[in-house]
Structure prediction request, 597 residues.
Amino acid sequence: MLLFFHLPPLTKTLLISLIAILTLIGIMVRPFKWNEAMIAMAGAGLLLIIGLINPLDALTVLLNDWNIFLFFLGMMALSALAEAAGLFDWLAAQAARLAGGSSRRLLLNTFLLGSVISMVLSNDATALILTPIVYTLVTRLRLPVLPFLFACTFIADTASFLLPVSNPINIIVLTTFHLDLWTFLRLLFLPGLLVICINIVVFFFLYRQQLKGSFDAKRLPSAAASIRHKNYFRYTCTTLLLVALAYIIASATQFPLSLVALGGAFLLLIGALSWKQITFKAIGGQISWSIFGFIAGMFIVVRAVEDTNLTTQFGLLLLHLSGGSSLGSVLIGTLGAAIGTNLVNNVPMAVVLTSSLRGVQHIAPSTQLGFIAATIFGCDLGPNLTTVGSLATILWLLILRRRNLEVSGLDYFKIGILVTPLMLLAGALTIWLLLP
Amino acid sequence: MRVLCCLDGTNIEQVHKAVSTMLRADALIIGIVYVIDSGPQGEIERQRERFLRRPELPSHRREQMQQAEITAAEDILEEGGRYFPGAELIRKEGRPEREIVNTATEWAADLVVICPRSAQSAGPPLGPKSVGHVARFVLDHAPCPVLLVRPIAREVFPIPR
Prediction:
């Protein structure tokens, strides 16, 4: 129905495709610096207003995906409350102390700390909270900043498929394809460790000159100074350990991970409020509410596209390209996901790929498993290729470069283009070897 | 003669040696500039946008970062002051290459002394890539002569004829 007028199926398909493509282009280009959430919601709103998707269908989609929305909320709240306890500052100070004055060991410790934080608290926590802390630390130590800054940025994504909770993208895929914990770990843990090793080795090689020196441990801040309130700090550490344990049990028993994240955040919130370490306003300010609009908008747009059968066709195309083999499925899935995440963003890419794979029937179980693992792997690791977000940003940076402006964002790109294809290939081949 | 020395936290000895051996110390007015690079903060902000967050860091983090930057800058300038007693210490913030060129103009420098790149960076000792982007920009845009203080690298010679 177009504003209550009947539309031929072909016109409807064309209109939906046009709106979906414009939405994706909008997210990619972000005209007038519009927020991605606004663009996604505008696309969804247009589909609803024109009547290209039934409002009840849209509501059902959103309600069915409650686990994803609540996981995002729980994950952001957990990180914000752990940050309020000074946990990340404390961990970074300990990592520096354990480095014993060696720049190389400090970089290694940064990688290891980033891996652990990504694994338990998701890649957001590493990229958004750990990065400025590490920057502050290495600035104080008068060490070259870029290797450490890049280490945080890269490891956030490189270590984001060690557990289902390590990246919200994993939850998006796993909400549709209910992989048990053992299958997830069997297919992705080992490739995860492998790509982390590759990431570390390549960084040590690339920055061997910068890492030659040592630092004066006297410049280190005291770890104790990071702790704002001893009791709340201890309470946070205990709660997070319990949350980590609960995550593993919940993943193994297929219990919704969002409830664990929210439960943990609720416990931390009670502690933070009782010890007056945070206010509702402060925690509200730390949560990116626009993410919910972005995901909701994308879910509705992709749901409308599903009705046109285009996502199924896309899934069939992927299957065709893979030749129906497990190796093909892993390679095509990884390549498609990695390219897609750099064209748009990994959230819409994961939604599109999940929807496309769901539509494909009569597929060999190992091929399907290959596609699922590759979707998670490619969407999680792919952003490291351009790192700064999307191809559009890279193009913008290149234009600035031509105008004789030195743009350090391009340094990210140079490293990403060097290390990421290697990690993608090595990881994809390992996944293939681990497929049943 | 007003000489503006550009420090990067690793090059004070090189700069001091060049100035004290090549120029007549009694006729010099020395200025030492150190620029807090705003580039990494830009990277962090871009990273936040990728994760669909507002680019601005939370205020306590921003302050923490700025405090660390200022402390490091003051350390570096103080160290420079020990090598050049009585020198004017200038702290700037922004893109290093631009700030150096602008400071050279504002300070009415007759000579800018700069190293081709930080000792911590991985550039080759010779060739076009041996000059980092900051020194390259200063060479191209400085309003006065520039003294490029290269490290001695005789081991890479002779260059193939």
Q: What stands out?
A: Chain A has a mean pLDDT of 89. The two ends of chain A are 46 Å apart (CA to CA).
